[in-house]
Amino acid sequence: MAVFLLALGAACCLGLGFVLQQHAAQRAPRADLLRWRLLLDLMRMPEWLLGTGFMVSGLILSALALNKGEVSLVEPLLTTNLLFAMALSRVLTRQSLGRSGWAGILLLGLGVTAFIVAGRPTGGGAPAGELRHWLVVGTVVGLTLLLVSLARRLPLFEEATLLALAAGLLYGLQDALTRTTTQRLDHSGLDAVLRSWQPYAVIAAGVVGLLLVQSAFEAAPLRMSLPALTAAQPLSGIACAVGFLGDRLRVTPAALAWQTVGLIAIITGVVLLGRHPALPGTVRDTLESIGASPPDTPDGPDGPGEPGPPDRPTDGGA
Q1: Are 274 and 19 in contact (CB under 8 A)?
Q2: d(CA 235, CA 269)
Q3: Which residues of 12-50 are buried (b: 16+ CB within 10 A; e: fewer)?
Q4: Cross-strand partners of 303
Q5: Which residues in the chain show pLDDT less than 70?
Q6: Number of domains in the chain
Q7: Which domain holds residue 197?
Q8: pLDDT tens digits along 25-64
Q9: Spatial CB neighbours of 48, under 8 Å, sequence gap ≥ 6
Q10: Would 260 be classed as within a structural domain?
Q11: Quick check: is 147 in a domain?
Q12: Which pTM does this prediction carry?
């Protein structure tokens, strides 16, 4: 029960933090995209600092949850951060949930339940050696670099989605390495932790992931980034946990089928909630936040009266 409460508390803090951070990030200078200067500019915004406080609280709670439970159990629970983001966004936008909102909530809840019940995540497997650690870490880092490289060639709205996917991969890796670090701390003490590479990799993944996700928040509305971030993190975390932590899931045909159904339901629910009108940041809002004058077009991607997405800036700062 403690693991569930800690994971849901972490999801609540993360969801609230993401909404507040995106509200601030879309007001940052466009030239800061994917530059460390972005974080320095955001630090001057009280709303972003409050959101970051929520996010740090969420990371602490998730670390405590990971110390008590398997990554493959905690990660699906963390996807519920989108429910708390929706709750705050609904207050800000005064949008009702409607059928799509309730469908997303139902799918997300049922998907998490199906995956956990069918998979019965357990620990106790033999942790992988250093070589396998590095292979899994290298694969995640390589995919992250590939996504960032592809994102830089796309218009801003599509770039935001790929940057959020990349951040989600890093956050999933960070969660798995956090569990490795806390296990070593429990068994071998602080000195052994400081002499290992994992805690430094946790910090590096967190800092780079923060830059990527804030750039995604700056580039486009929240609905273009948060679903991708929320879907990628558990997939990456579960893969890393099975890859080098020794987490085990049931692998009978029926269990695998239900786990697959559960993951599909989670991702579908995340996408439905992420694209709900209650999430802030329409195309028009984003254009106005960068000083553009949105034309009145009848059939943009966000519905009647919304223009298409802006092209990537052509100045040297983007």
Answers
A1: no
A2: 15
A3: bbbbbbbbbbbbbbbebebebbbeeebbebbeebebbeb
A4: 300
A5: 92-97, 122-128, 274-318
A6: 1
A7: 2-284
A8: 888 887 777 788 888 888 989 989 999 999 999 989 998 8
A9: 20, 21, 24, 25, 42
A10: yes
A11: yes
A12: 0.75
